[in-house]
TrEMBL record, chain A:
This is tRNA uridine 5-carboxymethylaminomethyl modification enzyme MnmG. PROSITE patterns: GIDA_1. Its cofactor is FAD. Residues 694-724 are annotated as: Disordered. Belongs to the MnmG family. Keywords: Cytoplasm, FAD, Flavoprotein, NAD, tRNA processing. NCBIfam families: mnmG_gidA (TIGR00136). Residues 710-724 have a biased composition (Polar residues). The lineage of its organism: Eukaryota, Viridiplantae, Streptophyta, Embryophyta, Tracheophyta. It comes from the Eukaryota. GO terms for biological process: mitochondrial tRNA wobble uridine modification; tRNA methylation. Pfam families: GIDA, GIDA_C_1st, SAM_GIDA_C. It comes from Rhynchospora pubera. GO terms for molecular function: flavin adenine dinucleotide binding. The keyword NAD applies.
From TrEMBL, chain B:
GO terms for biological process: tRNA methylation; tRNA wobble uridine modification. Belongs to the TRAFAC class TrmE-Era-EngA-EngB-Septin-like GTPase superfamily. TrmE GTPase family. NCBIfam families: mnmE_trmE_thdF, small_GTP. Its main location: plastid. The keyword Signal does not apply. It comes from Rhynchospora pubera. The keyword Hydrolase applies. It is found in: Plastid, Chloroplast. GO terms for cellular component: chloroplast; cytosol. The lineage of its organism: Eukaryota, Viridiplantae, Streptophyta, Embryophyta, Tracheophyta. This is tRNA modification GTPase MnmE. Keywords: Cytoplasm, GTP-binding, Hydrolase, Magnesium, Metal-binding, Nucleotide-binding, Potassium, tRNA processing. InterPro entries: G_TrmE, GTP-bd, GTP-bd_TrmE_N, GTPase_MnmE, MnmE_dom2, MnmE_helical, P-loop_NTPase, Small_GTP-bd.
């Protein structure tokens, strides 16, 4: 991998280099243009790492390390969870010398809560991360215990894959991957400080034991560890997770740099011993017979034996026990007031808020093939441990259960993500990135999605390359990040399909055709994956062509189509128009020998979706196109909103706080009205023209002194290209 | 060298997309992901941004080019409400201006060539003469169309100006046709705003525009607020709430599949049907407003010599039509204007409809039928002397079939007038009142000679059009253009929703149009639907693992 990457990069960026100057001229101020130009002229070799320059870089670091009590890297990732792993891997795969610092090496990519990956909207995130060249999808495919496709009949955009995973295997497999990358160095450490340079740029981190690690990019993925505190009943202790110490000191350090922090809460249910559970009366939930996959890489598609989940329900006893002891829970007893996620309410929340509901579903999910632990999904609670076993035993099937780990709640510090820009770099400190729960999200998939973006951008930043932003409408990843940095969120954020305005375009099946070209260009998709991708797209295209041209008349096939769809089939109908009929699936073509054997199931799905819903897809796309042009208009970073008297006072305040990067983002901030947006547009346009006039005059004046300009701008340009 | 390059390049590109041909993939030169580089800004780096899906086919991207931009706007740009002017102008601006104009405008020469299906391809800055048609293909006005294609126009977008007759009713109907064809109503000052944002106008004007826009949008907001009080507002609000409720039900199932009871589809579909009905009511009210503005067309039809012309004369208190004893006196359509309880109405006296060999009369009969088809109310006159005859039955059947073949969505209500009431014994009347009560909404007896029954007739006309002079509660609000557009978009969304349901498309597709309906209904308040739906889901359902 390491040797392939530089070659790949040089190949990829050749066309880029040629196109940059032109873009820059067309779209930015002329003064900037000049700096971009000179920037490009100056750095053509710098941005293309060759194997030799890369190696020498490494040696330099080693030398320095010997001389002083410090180590130098290109990127430092703090935290080894799902965000941290993706970030570190992406960065290392892009050729950056990356250091991953974590509190406990044995807990890399741990799944502290639900042993599952995917579900509605979350599975789209996983597919997207995979399409960009990330790891989470491969891991889930490799370590699944059970897989099911949800929402099968509700439309292609909301179809979702969910996998129960073996949490130990998952952590071990991920650790292997992380360990096997030669650009990636792992170290146990507790980071207590970030080191800041003169220009408000990050320089590195300092650990509890006094080590300094240096890098121009640092990604913080602290999860629930920053000043983490766990609760069981009234008892609490500082911890990031049960049995793991919290990370102390970093919050105060960040606060002293001017960051705003706030507190969130989440919880996890008890684990019971599966050997003590009587499954005979419980409703089993099996996996799909035909297994689907997260990763687009067929190498990961290895079927394994599936395990079964079970369904039980709360009883009136459960409800009574909780009602009688409500004052023993942190929320209702009133000693914890951090906000928990609406999506994962504790069982007491459910019972209090939905008084009328007599019973709630509880799922029993295995945590692994080699461990007896069962995850009791839907049953997280803040009750003291002495009541928890009694509570579990009110559930049918669990009458004699043995509890292995008690349920607990965890409180932790997060940094409201309006303090980041959409590249996930903080606005205050250049080169400092935040990802995962530190940004106020919940879920492994959300963490991984942010991780890969911050990893990519951290690596690019350390190389002096422009950072990458996924627009909201391009992907769930883009939607997630846009929501995080735009809306001032104060509760844990979970991805949901309803958060995306144009979800029909953001499906699992087209995640690769949306993002893999970008992954390729960034340098995370190797030649093998790229070839696979291209041949897949080609097959899909050819098949659509074929269906358009092949016509059928009468016969058994037409008769069955007519019965299935309830519509008559005319003679000489194309297969395409047959596939458009209601309830007709590609399978039916296969059944009658009109299918294409060269296509995989998922390719057939792609063809079917493209044809069947072409009208809707096209309409959504043209909708999008209408808003995109205005939405993507950039807003200067240094706008003085308070001086803009045409804005309402409320929006002046909000805009100053969030500092949106585009008009679209500005319009999504609560309290900013359409009239404010118009005022902003006018302001930006008149500023553009003023600047335009100025640069024109300057150009006229300095026409003779070309050399002078070219020599003076590089210093500017480095800052501009890196600061976001 | 670099500087020379800068000077050569146009400063502002209308489309900041750059296709990025991928050398690895020579077969696909239309490679899809755009590298977007930030527009002018002070300190932003270049960012790579992706917005494309490689699988969307090539033809789509060609079509996309046409839709770039932020929608097409339309408005009456000449002053309204003043004295009648000779000419009024409806202006369209935006990427689809030509397409929208092409839908409503028929150049005269094209009509002759019978080439209505060919897209209108105007030559920039060449005036064309033609007609503006409404949805049903009826002529609204004769106009001059002035196409000014981008960038040689005021807004630097494609602009089409339709120069109509300077009558408010005319202008509004033309504007409405444009809105129905897909344009959106321009905000106050939006043409100027676009002109400015697209690089027209002097910089010094920027501040003035800003002030103008903010003042005007404040005023618009005020008036919008005023508009949404009362009947209209409560209707829109309740429709919107219902949309959100339905979305809540659907979205909850999509995001939390295994935690919720299955959806009851029949009741859902019922709800949608009721909403569609309410919406139709509201749009009918909008049409009521249209009626108020343009007036009622009342066609009087019947066999020859039943007293149609006398009726017209009696009603309009004039000697507008020639009345003789000879059957077939009226050869052409005769108009007279009356006011029915304040509502302007045009009475159309028509030639008696019968089989005839007389060429002139034949044409008259044809015109009678045409008048009947276009009318808002049809008055079928018979003579009390003859009673309900075979010919009457045939005539009415004929009218009905031609209405159907004209494919009119709404047939005009019909009133049966039994004229010459003074000349007939009453006993016969009852029987044919029964016969034809299904066809006619009202039966009125008149005597054109004495004027008896005319006021009853007027009342009947108002009643069948739903224009009761006594205002029934909550039904008397008026719908302005913006609200009309709002309702129109909502209705379009509902029609599509209906097809989705009928074609048994998966649930997710229902949400697309429900969302659009909710958006259209919420336009005044501009709320964030996603957040609202989520909040609603969490308050309504017990969700969470």
């Amino acid at each position: 991998m390491a040797s392939a990457t530089p070659r790949l990069l040089s190949f990829l960026f050749t066309p880029l280099r040629l196109t940059y100057p032109i873009h820059a001229i067309r779209t930015s101020h002329r003064s900037r243009t000049l700096s971009f130009l000179s920037f490009n002229l100056r750095r053509p070799n710098g941005r293309l790492r060759t194997v030799s320059s890369f190696a020498s870089n490494g040696t330099n670091g080693m030398e320095r390390m010997g001389q002083k009590d410090e180590e130098r890297y290109d990127v430092i990732v703090v935290g080894g969870g799902h965000a941290g792993c993706e970030a570190a891997l992406a960065s290392a795969r892009l050729g950056a010398r990356t250091l991953l610092l974590t509190l406990n090496l044995d807990r890399i990519a741990w799944q502290p809560c639900n042993p599952a990956v995917g579900g509605p909207a979350k599975s789209q995130l996983v597919h997207e991360v995979d399409a960009l060249g990330g790891e989470i999808g491969k891991m889930a495919d490799r370590c699944y215990l059970q897989k099911r496709v949800l929402n099968l009949s509700k439309g292609p955009a909301v179809r979702a894959l969910r996998a129960q995973t073996d949490k130990r295997e998952y952590a071990m497999e991920m650790k292997k991957v992380v360990e096997s990358n030669s650009n990636l160095f792992i170290r146990e450490a507790m980071v207590t400080e970030v080191l800041i340079g003169k220009n408000d740029n990050i320089q590195g981190v300092r650990t509890f034991f006094g080590m300094d690690f240096f890098a121009p990019s640092v990604v913080l993925t602290t999860g629930t560890f920053m000043s983490g505190k766990i609760w069981v009943g009234r008892a609490s202790m500082p911890a990031g997770r049960a049995g793991e110490s919290a990370s102390l000191g970093l919050t105060e350090n960040l606060q002293s740099l001017g960051f705003e922090t706030d507190r969130l809460k989440t919880g996890t249910p008890a684990r019971v011993d599966c050997r003590s559970v009587d499954f005979s009366g419980l409703e089993p939930q099996y996996g799909d017979e035909e297994v689907s996959w997260f990763s687009f890489d067929p190498e990961c598609h290895i079927e394994r034996e599936q395990m079964c989940c079970y369904l039980t329900r709360t009883t009136s006893e459960t409800h009574k026990l909780i009602r009688d002891n409500l004052n023993e829970t942190p929320t209702y007893g009133g000693w914890v007031d951090a906000k928990g996620p609406r999506y994962c309410p504790s069982i007491e929340d459910k019972i209090v808020r939905f008084r009328d509901k007599e019973s709630h579903q509880i799922f029993l999910e295995p945590e692994g093939r080699t461990v007896p632990e069962l995850y009791v999904q839907g049953f997280s609670t803040g009750l003291p441990e002495r009541l928890q076993l009694a509570l579990l035993r009110t559930l049918p099937g669990l009458e004699n259960c043995v509890m292995l780990r008690p349920a607990y709640a965890v409180e932790y510090d997060f940094l409201p993500a309006y303090q980041c820009s959409r590249s996930l770099m903080t606005k205050k400190i250049e080169g400092l990135f935040f990802s995962g729960q530190i940004n106020g999200t919940t879920g492994y998939e959300e963490a991984a999605a942010q991780g890969i973006i911050s990893g990519i951008n951290a690596a690019r930043h350390s190389e002096g390359k422009p950072v990458i932003v996924l627009e909201r409408e391009s992907s769930y990843i883009g939607t997630l990040i846009d929501d995080l940095v735009t809306k001032d969120l104060r509760e844990p954020y979970r991805m949901l399909t309803s958060r995306s305005e144009h979800r029909l375009l953001l499906r699992a099946d087209n995640a690769d055709s949306r993002l893999t070209p970008l992954g390729r260009e960034i340098g995370l998709i190797d030649d093998r994956r790229w070839d696979l991708y291209q041949s897949k797209q080609l097959r899909i295209k050819e098949e659509k062509e074929r269906l358009k041209n092949v016509r059928v008349s009468g016969g058994e096939f037409a008769a069955e189509v007519a019965t299935v769809s309830g519509q008559p089939v005319r003679d000489h109908t194309t297969l395409e128009s047959i596939l458009k009929k209601p309830h007709v699936q590609y399978k039916l073509l296969d059944k009658h020998g009109f299918g294409n054997e060269n296509l995989s199931k998922c390719e057939k799905d792609c063809v079917e979706i493209d044809i069947k819903y072409a009208g809707f897809i096209m309409r959504q796309q043209s909708h999008l196109q209408q808003i995109v042009n205005q939405e993507h208009k950039r807003l200067p970073e240094d706008l003085d909103y308070y001086s803009m008297t045409t804005l309402s006072h409320e929006s002046r305040e909000k805009l100053s706080k969030v500092r949106p990067q585009t008009i679209g983002q500005a319009s999504r901030i609560g309290g900013v009205s359409p009239a404010d947006i118009t005022a902003l547009l006018i302001w930006v346009e008149s500023n553009r023209r003023k600047a335009n006039q100025r640069t024109q005059q300057e150009l006229l004046r300095s026409g003779a002194t070309d050399n002078h300009m070219a020599a003076s701008s590089p210093t500017d340009s480095v800052v501009q290209a890196t600061a976001i | 060298m670099a500087l020379a390059l800068i000077r050569l390049l146009p400063w502002r590109q209308p489309k900041p997309h750059h296709l990025f041909p991928f050398s690895l993939n020579p077969t696909k030169t239309h490679f899809l992901f755009h590298l977007r580089h930030c527009q002018a800004s002070t300190s932003s780096p270049k960012t790579l941004i992706l917005t494309q899906d490689e699988r969307s086919n090539g033809s789509l991207s060609a079509e996309r080019e046409a839709i770039v931009g932020s929608g097409t706007i339309a408005a009456i740009v000449t002053s309204l409400g003043g004295g009648p002017a000779a000419v009024g102008i409806v202006r369209l601006s935006g990427p689809t201006a030509v397409a929208v104009a092409g839908q409503v405008f028929r150049p005269v020469k094209r009509v002759k060539e019978e080439g209505g299906c060919v897209a209108w391809r105007p030559k920039s800055h060449f005036v064309e003469y033609g007609y503006v048609l409404d949805n049903d293909g009826n002529v609204i006005d004769e106009v001059l169309a002035v196409p000014m294609l981008a960038p040689r126009s005021y807004t630097r977008e494609d602009v089409v100006e339709l120069q109509c007759h300077g009558n408010d009713v005319c202008l509004h109907r033309v504007l409405r046709a444009c809105l129905e064809a897909g344009a959106t109503l321009a905000d106050p000052g939006e043409f100027t705003l676009r002109a400015f944002l697209n690089g027209r106008l002097d910089l010094s004007q920027a501040e003035n525009i800003a002030r103008l826009i903010s003042a005007k949008s404040a005023a618009a907001a005020d008036s919008a607020l005023a508009g949404i009080q009362g009947g209209f507002s409560s209707l829109v609000k309740s429709l919107r709430i219902q949309c959100i409720e339905l979305l809540t039900e659907l979205e909850a199932r999509l995001d939390f599949e295994d935690e919720l009871p299955p959806l009851c589809f029949p009741s859902l579909i019922d709800k949608i049907r009721v909403m569609q009905h309410d919406l139709q009511d509201a749009l009918d009210t909008a049409n009521y407003d249209k009626l108020l503005q343009s007036g009622l067309q009342i066609a009087i039809i019947g066999r020859p010599n039943v007293g149609k012309s006398s009726l017209l004369n009696a009603w309009s208190k004039s000697e507008r039509a020639i009345v003789t004893e000879i059957a077939g006196t009226t050869r052409d359509v005769v108009e007279a204007n009356v006011s029915i309880h304040g509502i302007p109405a045009t009475l159309l006296d028509t030639a008696g409809i019968r089989e005839t060999d007389d060429i002139v009369e034949k044409i008259g009969v044809k015109r009678s039928e045409a008048a009947a088809l276009a009318a808002d109310v049809i008055i079928m006159a018979i003579s009390a002397v003859d009673g309900w005859s075979e010919e009457d039955a045939k005539l009415i059947e004929h009218i009905m079939t031609s209405q159907k073949s004209a494919n009119q969505a709404m047939t005009a209500p019909m009133i049966l007038v039994i004229n010459k009431d003074d000349c007939k014994p009453k006993d016969l009347l009852i029987s044919f009142e029964e016969i034809c009560s299904g066809l006619f909404k009202k039966v009125v007896r008149t005597c054109a000679l004495t004027g008896a029954g005319i006021s009853e007739l007027e009342k009947a006309v108002l009643e069948v059009r739903g224009l009761e002079p006594i205002s029934s509660a909550g039904r008397k609000w008026t719908v302005n253009q913006r609200q009309f557009e709002q309702l129109l978009r909502t209705q379009e969304a509902f029609v599509r929703l209906h097809t989705s349901i009928e074609e048994q498309l998966p649930m997710d597709f229902w949400t697309i149009d429900l969302r659009e309906a909710a958006l259209a209904l919420g336009q005044i308040s501009g709320d964030d639907i996603s957040e609202e739906v989520l909040t609603s889901i969490f308050s309504k359902f017990c969700i969470g693992k």
